[in-house]
Every structure is written in C-alpha cells, then in structure tokens.
Specification:
InterPro entries: DEATH-like_dom_sf, Death_dom, TRADD, TRADD_N, TRADD_N_sf. The protein is 46% helix and 13% strand. By secondary structure, it is α+β, with helices and mostly antiparallel strands.
C-alpha cells in the first residue's frame, strides 16, 4: 500500500464510438483506517456523493475530465477500475499519484461532499502488477497499463450514477432558468440544488496539505455546481450571452465586479446606466462587461464572472455561459 498525505466542467464520460488509439486500464484501491468506505458506498444517500468526489479527483489527477473513465466500482476492498483513452492523461495521473497529489485531492473532494476528512492509503495495479513498486519508472507503468486493455463496457451501476448526476444537473438548470425562480447556493430549493451546489476551494488550505506543496486543484480551474471547469478569458460569445441574459441585475453584478476592477469604480456604473438608458438593459449590460474586459484584459476570466453571478443568485446565467445544459 502507498500511504497518501491528505487530500466538468464535469464531463459526462461515455464509451467512445470510435476506438481510441491509446487504451489502457488500471485498478485504484482506496483504504481508510477511520471509516469503512465499502459500507458507506452501500448507503444510497452517500453513494452519489462518493461517486462525485471520485470523478472530480480523477479529473484533477488527469488534468481534465476527458481521457479517463470509471468502468466499475468494487465494494469489497473499495477499488475502482479506470479506463484511459489518452496517454498524456495517464501520464498526468501517474505523476500526481506518485507525488501524493491524487490523495490530497481525494480528501479535499470528500470533504466538499460533506464526508469527513480522513487519511487514506492507496494501491495501484495493472493486472497482477503492483504499480506502486515501479512508480520511479513511468514508462514501465504506462506499458503495463496499456497491456491491461479493458475488455468490457462501463458497469451498469456506474452508468446509473452518471445518469443520476445528469438528471440532477438538468433539473437544477431548468429551475434556475425559470423566470419565477432564483437559484442560490444557500436556497432551500430542489434536491438537485443541494446535491450539486457549487463549493469553492478554501482560500486557506489545511496545513497538512500545504506542507506537501501546492494542492492539485489549481487556480486555472474552478468548480461550479460540483463540476470542474477549465478557466479561460472571456470571449465575444460570452459577452453576448451575458448581455442577453443578465437582465435588470446587471448593476448588481457590476457592483461586485468593481471590488476587484478599478475601471468599474464609481461613477463608472452610474455613467453606463445614464448614457445607455434609452438603448435598454441589453446595451447597459453589454457596456458593463465590455468595460470590465477592456480594463482587465487577460484577467477578465470566466471564473471571476461566474463567482459574481453565484453571489447575485444568477446561477441560470452562469449555466448558459458555461453551457452546462449541453454538457
């Protein structure tokens, strides 16, 4: 066993219609002395939370949610069978596993799913080969993983969990886009909202994590409704979508953006409201975000805008910007 320290966009992982050029599989076993993961996974109210934490951990370890898929979860001895369809993602996974970053991410995401912190140990196998013994030779690990190509599709139980998550996201998206509904991370709304409410990484991480270097989850990714997305600079399409959907709350969004954007400090927002009053809400919202993007340049990122939209209870707008309904 390898001892761990501590601790899309959730893409909906599907079997590829065309066989990828690079395919391999590995078994990841997770053990905790503090709790019985196998027993917890059998509990219906915890199963989906555990699955979400595992998926987000794998996305962190591989660098993104694509290229790695959970084929099966074994209750006995609590293990996962993983399928890789990209060699680069498999290399990332091995690197982060070797440096205990995967273990750190496990604890982090379990905590965010309201599952208490725990120290864990992990074991990695490709067929009968224990990869923990040869982690110093990543090429050998890759060779064993590729030789262990999976010969079956995703397990029915895992497929059901994928569908459960998809259904909850779609239900939440639908409720947020309703003109009569305001969705907030603190609102006591549908089960979907509480299950998939966004959780941001803490600004101050536990010392036990910091002692081992920077955590795996980095500033170029952000979490929204329990789904990891790659951060990026806002585009002209984002600009259009925001202006079209934000409505009367554009000034409220602007007031929060101005806290970290000098170009929106008083009286900039009032000036926009006055100068473009005759053109209407669309143009006012358009000019607001235009000024933000011009002033902040490459710092005008999706994560900053989504954070403000969450704080102003405009989750539906954020979902349209991230296009979660078509994920």
């Amino acid at each position: 066993m390898r001892n761990g320290s501590h601790s899309e966009e959730l893409a909906w992982l599907r079997m590829d219609s065309v066989a990828p050029a690079w395919v391999g599989s590995v078994f990841l076993f997770i053990h905790s002395d503090e709790m019985d993961l196998s027993a917890m996974y059998k509990e219906p109210q915890l199963r989906l939370k555990i699955y979400k934490a595992l998926k987000l951990t794998l996305a962190d370890a591989a660098g993104s949610s694509g290229g790695v898929e959970i084929l099966k979860i074994y209750g006995s001895g609590f293990g996962l069978e993983l399928k890789f369809t990209e060699e680069r993602k498999c290399k990332n996974f091995l690197h982060n596993y070797r440096n205990d970053k995967l273990q750190q991410a496990l604890v982090y995401h379990f905590r965010n799913q309201s599952i208490p912190n725990f120290t864990c140990s992990t074991e990695l196998k490709a067929g009968t080969v224990t990869l923990d013994d040869i982690l110093e030779n990543p090429e050998d690990c890759l060779r064993h993983i590729k030789e262990n190509e999976p010969n079956h599709l995703r397990d029915d139980e895992v497929s059901r969990l994928e569908e459960d998550i998809r259904r909850l996201v779609l239900e939440y998206s639908s409720s947020c886009q309703s003109s009569e509904t305001h969705c907030s991370v603190n609102s006591k709304t549908p089960t979907a909202a509480s299950t998939l409410s966004p959780i941001s990484p803490p600004s101050i991480l536990p010392s036990s994590i910091q002692a081992n270097g920077s955590p795996l989850y980095s500033t170029d990714r952000f979490e929204f409704q329990g789904v990891l997305f790659d951060d990026r600079v806002l585009t002209s399409q984002d600009h259009f979508t925001f202006a079209k959907t934000v409505g009367r709350k554009w000034k409220e969004v602007g007031r929060l953006l101005k806290k970290s954007c000098r170009g929106l400090r008083d009286p900039a927002i009032d000036n926009i409201a006055f100068e473009y009053e005759r053109e209407g809400l669309y143009e006012q919202a358009y000019q607001l975000l235009l000024k933000f993007m011009q002033c902040e340049g490459r710092k005008a990122t999706m994560s900053r805008l989504v954070k403000v939209l969450e704080e102003t209870e405009l989750v539906g707008v954020a979902e349209q910007l991230l296009d979660t309904s078509s994920s």
